[in-house]
Amino acid sequence: MRKQFRDLASPADAREAIASLDLTPTAETAALEDARGRVLAERIDAELDVPGFDRASMDGYAVRARDTFGADEAEPAELDLIGAVHAGNEPDVTVESGTAVEISTGAVMPPGADAVVIVERTEERDGSLVVYSAVAPGDSVMPAGTDIAAGARALGPGTRLTPREIGLLSALGVDEVPVRGKPTVGIVSTGDELVRPGDELRPEAGEIYDVNSYTIAAGVEEAGGVPKLYPHAGDDYEEMERLLRRAADECDLVLSSGSTSASAVDVIYRVVEERGELLLHGVSVKPGKPMLVGTLGEGSAYIGLPGYPVSALTIFRTFVAPAIRDAAGLPEPRTATVEGTMAARERYAEGRTRLMPVGLVADGDGNTLVYPVDKGSGATTSLVEADGVVEVAADVEYLAEGEAVTVQLFSPDVRAPELLGVGEDDPALSRLLDRVSSPRYLPFGSREGLRRLRDGISDVAVVAGDRGDATEGIDAVELGSWTREWGLVVPDGNPDGVSGLADLVDDDLRFVNRDSNSGLRTDLGNAVAALADERGTTRHEFVEAIEGFDRGTKAFESPARAVAAGRADAGLGLRATADSLGLDFVSLGEQPVTVLANPARIDKPGVGSLRDALAAGDDAFADLAGFERGQTPR
Predict the structure, then answer these.
(1) What pLDDT is recorded for position 138?
(2) CA-CA distance, 519 to 525, in Å (whole number)?
(3) Please, how many CA atoms are within 13 Å of residue 402, restricted to the half-sphere of its CB?
(4) How, if at all, do strands 511-514 and 570-574 pair?
């Protein structure tokens, strides 16, 4: 029986349901050396004065203040010098009327003394001390208990222990402290298709590597919890029940990802309903509608996250991380949000709250711009392309260009990249970007690169092929360019004897193309059109005769890897890729690759670093992996 989503809860109701869960861990004791960053569970009172004695705060001489009254440069006071006291030593001399004792900063004031004359206002002469300035009782003396007095409240419960508090506790002689426990969070990823990183993957069987377990575990730790990973749970009721019950017995909170939607195989909600209490099933947000909130067993808290990585991280950041921080006693980090303005208009009208993944980029003046990153919840790469989310209310139909927004960062450590580039993917470019500090490059193809540059989102666009009219109306500065050899990648030894495009039709070969945004696809289309003209047929008819022409891949190595795996007889690609994978190559020509920059951001350090790398000359390009000597900067 399918579980239908009815009466989706509002985001406020979801937060209220999570707040009703008890995630509070048991308090524990931590050694002082391990206590940094922990939160005090109880008040700590001082059991001694700090300092525990009157001490000198300056180098000088301990005296009775009354013996210096009236002393000045014209009529100095003269006292007998009877000894010395240094820091860490117990005084063995008493200051009496008419006497003085040399004293170091931090040393115990000797009996009888009530002030210190600083050394600059004195002079030693034949065993006597000449004092040129009068002092009052208490001058240059730190009385016992000045820092904190015995019995005083030193630190209160809920105090986060930073180096400052650690120093105070050290001064009080405290070697261990009562701290709030860190909530233990069990993480169970569900789905028969999941494989742990490092294990053998069978893509042909629909298997994928488990992203959520490690992503969410890192988020739990950052929020102040202790993650505990459990084995994968298949889409099987008994197995899922066993794992969830075990996690509930061992953890303060259980998080699962996947198996929360309305699919027939999604049985996890049944486990919660039968073994605990289901408080909420479905939230009116995008992404992340299929969220579960409830309890397992004896009230153990449970939250079910969506299966897609971006959705799972978004829901975790928005709803779960605050609850973990609250249980650990940690405040929301000050750097967890950032203010910015929309780089371009974004339409949205779906009637439910949208948690819009966004990226950050600085404009030429250093202001923060925000742009949407939306490749679909299932796109794992969005995890590194997105810096956080903007919460868009259900009744908002669009965000205007320049509109102020608040970005909830995925991590307090997130910073805008030094360089944001969009465009063609290329092995030479990958190596060039290694010479730029903190770049972000989105390989969306030449067409998308130009669009983002035109819209003022990216710093640079990388465009392959002859640009023609594509750059018309786009204000851009050329940073540099190079050429690359493109053509057909075929198996080692070229068993089908491929010599050109005509063989794709004549020999009925299986072909893997690039997507329509790629500059390689554009040049291939032009070459196909020219060949069709030679044969007296139409481009459409020629394309229809090539198996796989209309199915494109996004990555430049994907066609070549399909050939290497035996899934295709030929693929569109680069000589550099064929060489790196040990495949043969049939050249179809050379293609220019040009880097264009937003003129308003030409002075950004990241843009300057890329320009310098491009200008490094032939030697720099010859060192690029897969880049041949004949392919030099233009």
Answers:
(1) 95
(2) 10
(3) 0
(4) parallel
Question: 389 is written with which tokens?
Answer: 């989310």
Q: Domain coordinates of the chain in residue numbers?
A: 11-24+183-328, 28-50+147-179, 55-142, 337-416, 423-629
Q: In the CATH hierarchy, which fold is given to the domain comprising 28-50+147-179?
A: Molybdopterin biosynthesis moea protein, domain 2 (3.90.105)
Provide the token pair at 334: 């000050």
- 485, 574 contact by CB (below 8 A): yes
Say how far apart CA 407 and CA 390 lie, in whole Å: 5
Beta strands 460-464 and 419-423 are parallel
Helix (H) or strand (E) holding 561: helix 558-564
Residue 615 in 3-state DSSP? coil
> Is 217 in a helix, a strand, or coil?
helix
- Closest by alpha carbon to 208, among 198, 195, 199, 197? 195
What confidence category does residue 344 fall into, taking pLDDT thresholds of 50, 70 and 90? confident
Which residues fall within 8 angstroms of residue 288, CB to CB, at 6 or more apart?
305, 306, 311, 312, 314, 315, 318, 355
Whether the upstream peptide bond of residue 287 has omega within 30° of 0, thus cis, is: yes
pLDDT of residue 289: 75
The owner of tokens 């006292």 is 79
The span from the first CA to the last CA of the chain, in angstroms, equals: 64
Q: What angle do CA 219, 224, 226 make, to 5 degrees?
A: 75
Size of the chain, expressed as the number of residues it contains: 634
Burial of 313 (0-12, 13-18, 19+ CB in 10 A): buried
pLDDT digit string (tens) for 199-241? 888 887 888 888 889 999 999 999 999 999 998 877 677 888 8
Contact 593, 429 (CB under 8 A): yes
Helices (H) and strands (E) in the chain, counts: 17, 36
In order, the DSSP letters of 464-521 are ES--TTTTTT---EEEEEEEEEEEEEE-TT-TT---STHHHHHTT-BEEEE-TTSHHH
Q: Can you tell me the distance from the alpha carbon of 172 to that of 164, in angstroms, rounded to the nearest whole number?
A: 13
So what CATH class is 11-24+183-328? alpha beta
Q: Measuring CA to CA, how many Å separate 284 from each of 74, 264, 394? A: 86, 21, 9
Q: At 336, which amino acid appears?
A: A
CATH 1.20.1600.10 fits 337-416, yes or no: no
A 10 A CB-CB count for 605 gives: 12
| Three-state SS at 317 | helix
Would you give the DSSP letter of residue 213? Answer: H
- The dihedral of CA 13, 345, 339, 335: what is its sign? positive
Whole-model pTM: value is 0.72
At the second CATH level, the architecture of 423-629 is 3-Layer(aba) Sandwich (3.40)
Pick the CATH number of 55-142 from 2.170.190.11, 3.20.20.140, 1.10.3810.10, 3.30.470.20: 2.170.190.11
Q: Which two tokens stand for residue 578?
A: 């064929």
CB 484 within 8 A of CB 572: no
Is 588:504 a contact under the CB 8 Å cutoff?
Answer: no
d(CA 238, CA 250): 19
